[in-house]
Amino acid sequence: MRAARWLFLGVVLAGALLAFRGHGDEIVSAIGSTSVASVGGASALVLAGLGLTSVAWLALLRGFGHRLPGGIGRSVFFVGQLGKYVPGGVWSIGAHAHLARDHGVPVRVTASTSLTFLGLNLATAAAVVGVVASVGVDVGPLTRTTGAVLCLAALVSLVPAVVNRLAGLVAGVQLGLRWLDVVGLVALMALTWASYAGAVVVLSPEPTWSVLPAAAAAFATAYAVGVAIVVAPAGVGAREVTLVALLSPMLGVGAAGAVAVLVRVLHTGADLLLALVAWAAASRVPSPVGRPPAQNSSAVVHESVAGDH
Length: 309
Fold this sequence. Notes:
Elements: H1 2-18, H2 24-32, H3 36-63, H4 70-81, H5 91-101, H6 107-134, H7 144-157, H8 160-171, H9 179-203, H10 212-228, H11 238-251, H12 253-282, H13 300-308
Helix pairs in contact: 2-12, 3-4, 3-6, 3-9, 3-12, 3-13, 4-5, 4-12, 5-6, 6-7, 6-8, 6-9, 6-10, 9-10, 10-11, 11-12
């Protein structure tokens, strides 16, 4: 078991390094043309955004009646998230399930949690893009009408009855989200997208917060494209091309390319750092025996925000 985990870590690191193969000069140039303050500020925003996603994932897990202590839960989430650097698109789900099983969470429940979390990401990304396009901001080929339709589709996909039904089919048990829970999860993801977009703005040559909505739509679109290209580790390549295409009208091609490269570097570094810190913290906690007690699935988000910070 230990050997398999070390093998997983080795494959993850290889995938992460492979993502930057042949781009060394671009990375050095992008870093050299960006101030230390900008890199530091963007790093803080990326870390904040990733931290919020862990709260959302743990909230969904609690919706199935399974509570993991904050430190253990963050370790399962952040270490498992490294699986996205392995080509195939499913390894993070498998890693989450494997790690959570050690703490009494059934594999199907964890897999459903991660799939629902992915759906939450995609639905809120679509909502961000749809809202921004519907108010007239340039988002590639989208018009106000298509933006409104996209936003409506995203909202329908977030209806609790829809989410609970689909998640329950995978988990074999019912997910108990209510409207209040979904609103809380959407709020968490809105802050997440705002953090990621803020990092894009901070890294721009002439930062101005007026472009934050456009940056959010660009990043959310790039994220969705990256998810669709499952053969690329963490969407590498496809995500950057999309981001450059959408940022170029605002920043110019050269600046957009530099920002896209730096965003990728910061997200990869933050993923690795958070996984390391969470694993180190969790390793100090004695391993639980047996299955953790189930809890009522109501007020999922409220309890998660209160208990995991």
